[in-house]
Write a structure and sequence with these properties.
Residues 129-228 form the OmpR/PhoB-type domain. There is one protein chain. The protein is an alpha/beta fold. The chain folds into two domains: 3-123, Response regulator (Rossmann fold); 131-226, Orthogonal Bundle (Arc Repressor Mutant, subunit A). It contains eight helices and twelve strands. The strands form three sheets. Strands 2-1-3-4-5 form a five-stranded parallel beta sheet, sandwiched between helices. It has a four-stranded antiparallel beta sheet with strand order 6-7-8-9, with no helix packed on it. A three-stranded antiparallel beta sheet has the order 10-12-11. Helix 1 (11-23) links the parallel strand 1 and strand 2 (27-31). 31% of the residues are buried.
Length: 232
């Protein structure tokens, strides 16, 4: 049974999550503030953390940093803060996902499944997924092969590097800065124009309808997510 640590100062939210998560087969541990939450993360060794940012003692952003000092446990932020700067900061500090309150329990459960699956693969020592098949799209990274509806799509080296990063982090939000640093290098961490151009080029080659993408999803003001539907 997977153990989830909920760090939130609102009793109603904790109760709702406890009931919903327990009904789905998870064991739930709770903390009502940041300090106790960090202590619980060390003592309880949860499989996943759901974290509010507006905590009464220390800000949730600091909690992410504290947990990341000695743990790679998946962290899903659950917060009323919808501003893109808060989302980017949380993800850059090490959060794995960000869900804005009010939230749908179905969406949250899908995010939990995706994060748990990625953690399970890492714990089992599985190699990174290098092939992917979604509908009429086949991606084979080692062979540098992309086929959409039976037609091979040729990728430039940078397009291939970008696609590789997205596939290896499928169903996870990657910030603009994270992608730019990985694909173009630290000197280009703020060159979002590069990124928009290459994402649009990839969509032209991967998406059935590039104007209404269903694979490479824009997280407004934050970054992108390669959505495979595996976590749903």
């Amino acid at each position: 049974m997977l153990k989830i640590l909920v760090i939130d100062d609102e009793p109603q939210i904790r109760k709702f999550l406890r009931i919903s998560l327990t009904a789905s087969g998870y064991k739930v541990v709770e903390a009502e503030a940041g300090g106790p939450g960090v202590d619980a993360a060390k003592a309880e060794k949860p499989d996943l953390v759901i974290l509010d940012l507006g905590l009464p003692d220390i800000d949730g952003q600091e909690v992410i940093t504290a947990i990341r000092e000695d743990s790679a446990v998946p962290i899903i932020v659950l917060s009323v803060r919808a501003d893109e700067t808060d989302k980017v900061e949380a993800l850059d500090r090490g959060a794995d996902d960000y869900v804005v309150k009010p939230f749908g329990i179905g969406e949250l459960m899908a995010r939990i499944r995706a994060a748990s699956r990625q953690r399970g693969a890492a714990a089992a020592g599985e190699t990174e997924v290098d092939t992917l098949a979604i509908g009429g799209l086949t991606i084979d990274l080692p062979r540098r092969l992309v086929i959409r509806d039976g037609i091979e799509q040729r990728l430039s080296p940078k397009e291939h590097a970008l696609l590789t990063l997205l596939v290896h982090n499928r169903d996870k939000i990657l910030t603009h800065g994270q992608i730019l640093r990985e694909v173009w290098g630290p000197a280009h961490a703020d060159d979002t124009v590069y990124l928009r151009v290459y994402v649009n080029q990839l969509r032209q080659k991967l998406e059935p309808d590039p104007g209404r993408p269903t694979l490479i999803i824009t997280e407004p003001g934050v970054g992108y997510r390669l959505r495979t539907g595996e976590g749903r």
